[in-house]
Amino acid sequence: MKYSSKLESGRWIKRYKRFFLDLETNDGVLTIHCPNTGSMKNCGSEGDIVWYSLSDNPKRKLPGTSEIVELSNGHKIGINTHLANKLIKEALENNVITELSEFSSWKSEVKIGNSRIDLRGENEAGEYCYVEVKSMTLLEEHGLGCFPDSVTERGQKHLKELTELVQSGVQAALIFCVQHTGIERAAPADHIDPEYGRLLRDAVKAGVKVLAYQVAFTEDSADVVKGLPVVL
């Protein structure tokens, strides 16, 4: 996936009101939009390099959008959670995610009942597979990536919906889009949201596939490159 514009860089000063990020740039302090609703725990601090895109839309109050944080240890983190669905859809269409390669014709934001599911694919037999995507950026110790980084009632609801789908005879999967290059394996964050962990394990027992795929970053692109083990 190519970014919409050439990325610029600055140094992290502070994040505040969740969606604002101040950067130190060659032209002074710049406030950009931070499209991330999570806590962003361990995802950056003062002095870290932030790569951001610029919009030419004159109606935007903040023309810049944070895309990647580059930590002092060299790891990169994709902090634009809005891109996770796009990255995973592209990977599914290119058969990078081999566990679901029998499905094609992937559609986004498919309505089912009173909810919307991130993605839906269809195989040659006309069978559907529904997929929810979660962006994983929290790196704990020894390469262990965890989701969520704060309690998520919405995420819990999605797990219940996936479980109900497989119980009705439809295939369903949860894919962690791992946007931290230091993460080596994925797990539920039981220490942050134990209910999410319980529901995830129940979903697996019911037949929901849980996968984790890692993203690699350059200054102008981001791509899903490999699967990671999921630890339950």
Automatic annotation (TrEMBL):
The Sugar fermentation stimulation protein C-terminal domain, residue ranges: 82-220
GO function terms (MF aspect): DNA binding
Origin superkingdom: Bacteria
Residues annotated as domain SfsA N-terminal OB: 13-74
Entries under NCBIfam families matching the protein: sfsA
Family, per entry: Belongs to the SfsA family.
PANTHER family per UniProt: SUGAR FERMENTATION STIMULATION PROTEIN A
UniProt protein name: Sugar fermentation stimulation protein homolog
Lineage: Bacteria, Pseudomonadati, Pseudomonadota, Gammaproteobacteria, Oceanospirillales
